[in-house]
Sequence to fold (314 residues):
Amino acid sequence: APVQTLDSSKTENGATKPLKPSNDSATHDVAENYEGQYRFAPIEEAQVSRAMIKRYFESMYERAISGDFPAHQIVIVGAGSAGLSCAYQLGSTRPDLKITIIEANVAPGGGAWLGGQLMTPMIIRKPANRFLQEIGVPYEDEGAYVVVKHAALFTSTLLSRVLAMPNVVMMNATAVEDLIIHEDHTGQQRVAGVVTNWTLVALNHDTQSCMDPNTITCPVVVSATGHDGPMGAFSAKRLVSAGLLKELGNMRGLDMNRSEPAIVNNTREVAPGLIMAGMELSEHDGKNRMGPTFGGMIASGIKAAHEALRVLDS
Ligand code: AHZ
Fold:
């Protein structure tokens, strides 16, 4: 029998046949065609291994260093709503830059897979809804704010837009466990990249002998690691222990009206070479939290992209 590949699910004009509920005739067609004769193209196990290894390690090799213009690199730490919004803004406006996202979790998205209290609708205050229009996420308009029917629709759309950009690389399941801090000729300390390890390794430093990390050098790092938690507020805490920040401001209580503009307006270069965005700033500066409303995260991510470009181009 002829080998059937997924291509045989194409119609005569080349379009993919949609999978519809089983009582639909199109599904019966597919089921009948594949009944007992569905075949995959042949493959060797080593091909699968090599296809992944080659691309992953080539990408690690290429991203280890920033490179000369036009290959400048910006590293974003944390793929929550703030980090991903920053990546979108940078990746779409500056295709000449290498944008590298390091995310500690297996699943990128941070806290943006749900609205609040594990409920699904996501609230975004105006005018940040313009970003939804730009990336193509539908919403219900409620006047001062809009509602996306499921937070996962926002996060999955933003992720797909970001990851489709040829200049973006994301390494998830990878933790930033330190910052590279260089001293310039005037004695000023400057963040010059990140120190990474597989997250599973980073979580096991206490149970094994020394497991040294890896590095990525770049002129600008954007840190968007969220508020304090097992991994969060990473750079803010490291700035304190490295002597670049006297003490953590510590996140303050919930006040939606104060917190969202405060986070956006204070998104900035908090130490030479380090831009901070999103809820990590609440720990750095001692600002209020906003709870389940995400416009501030989007706008902070976009502002972080502008700040990163300002530093890069200065
Ligand atoms: O896994 C973390 C998450 O995906 C990741 N991260 C943290 N530390 C890291 C490290 N290396 C690599 N050392 C790290 N990745 O950073 C991401 C942070 O996402 P988030 O959703 O927690 O933060 P955000 O600032 O993008 O969004 C905050 C959303 C919140 S919290 C809040 C409140 O508590 O009141 N309100 C809002 C809207």
In short: Residues 66-313 form a domain with the FAD/NAD(P)-binding domain fold (CATH 3.50.50.60). The first strand starts at residue 73 and ends at 77.
